[in-house]
Amino acid sequence: MVNAMKPRDLRSYVLATAFFLVMAVFSVLCPDFRTIGNFISMLRQISFIGIMAIGATFVILTGGIDLSVGSMLALTGMICARLLRFTGVGSYITVVLALTAGALMGLINGKLVSRLNIPPFIVTLGTMGVFRGLTLLTAFRKFGFITNTVISNERFLALGGGKLGPIYYPILFYAGVAAIGYCYLTRSKFGRYVYAVGGKEQAAVMSGIDVAGVKTGVYVISGVCSALAGILWTSRLMTATTEMGQGNELDVIAAIVVGGTSLSGGRGGIGQTIIGTLFIGALTNGMSMLGLSAFYQPLAKAVVIVAAASIDSLLLARSTKENRRALLGNRGGRHSPVPDVARRANRIPIDRSKNLLELEGISKRFGDIPVLEDVSLKIARGEVHALIGENGAGKSTLIKIITGVYPKDSGIIRLN
After folding, report:
1. HEC profile of the chain
2. pLDDT in tens, 16-30
């Protein structure tokens, strides 16, 4: 049964099995792990990472990466502390200015990546150091030594420490950001552009998509999400420290990759990131409750990332191999010693009375740009078809509509 699963379904099955296995093991080894109080506490712990992971998912879906999320969190927290302690501005203005600062940091990353064509890894690795350095420069000092200053603004402190019933506010913020991110990614024109750029950037350019604008936009989203996480974290701690957010980029990437979003872009989503965040949160929480040293946690997360990336690569290779075999009609594979005559004899004969695939009136637009208009096609059993056309003619878009990557705007698809 598992062998017949699609790669995406198989990965979801593996992740769900691993998640419930981790939950079961920790529940047996530590009975306090399965309590409602601990579950709420775990959700509160992962809410900060989860908010950053939502923003970083947009970046990774375009084929990029953001290593500066932890540093943006720290700098935003320090900005909040400075504004509240020395300027006298209220909590609402502080939050708005902090979110604006996060957007500006994301804009810097986006412009460097999209306009100067510098690899995202290099850009965000550099800005990670820049933002962390600015955090150290703006930190509170006493007699030349960095010190922590307590924040006393009650409204601001309620953001990270307040509750609605038994639920902490950071959990509610996480749920809200996740819902907004999911709807924006799946139901907006920008979200479709994100998948298009990550799927194949050249095809997106030929389709008239503003690729540079999309790339800049996803880094701004990541910056705003990191800023919001920094605001909530600073509120919870009641102070800002220079160590805030250190190593969080590993947690964020782990949550995204484990959930099923591909580092190569174009595949994944917010739902998968939420599941990955829960998995990483359960793993971290369980290890802490068992009293394991904190030094083992980065090791465990690194192993999980490598394992998830390996599974993604293997499933993609398997899918590609199966598709190639189906197209060639050769069960022996590429290196099969079966002669050409035997291979031709094993191919399914063409039966034009049985259509395996019918397309009728398929149309697709990206924004105001028509990519496909009223496309119809019939493929009979045993037939092999080729799509031929210039770059930007819509070949890859049609294939992605058939395979379910893109939704069609109109038309009918019949598959027998």
Report:
1. CHHHCCHHHHHHHHHHHHHHHHHHHHHHHCHHHHCHHHHHHHHHHHHHHHHHHHHHHHHHHCCCCCCCHHHHHHHHHHHHHHHHHHHCCCHHHHHHHHHHHHHHHHHHHHHHHHCCCCCHHHHHHHHHHHHHHHHHHCCCEECCEECCCCCCCHHHHHHHHCEECCEEHHHHHHHHHHHHHHHHHHHCHHHHHHHHHHHCHHHHHHCCCCHHHHHHHHHHHHHHHHHHHHHHHHHHHCCCCCCCCCCHHHHHHHHHHHHCCCCCCCCCCHHHHHHHHHHHHHHHHHHHHCCCCCCHHHHHHHHHHHHHHHHHHHHHHHHHHHHHHHHHCCCCCCCCCCCHHHHHHHCCCCEEEEEEEEEEEEEEEECCEEEEEEEEEEEEECCCCCCCCCCCCCHHHHHHHHCCCCCCCEEEEEEC
2. 777 788 888 888 888
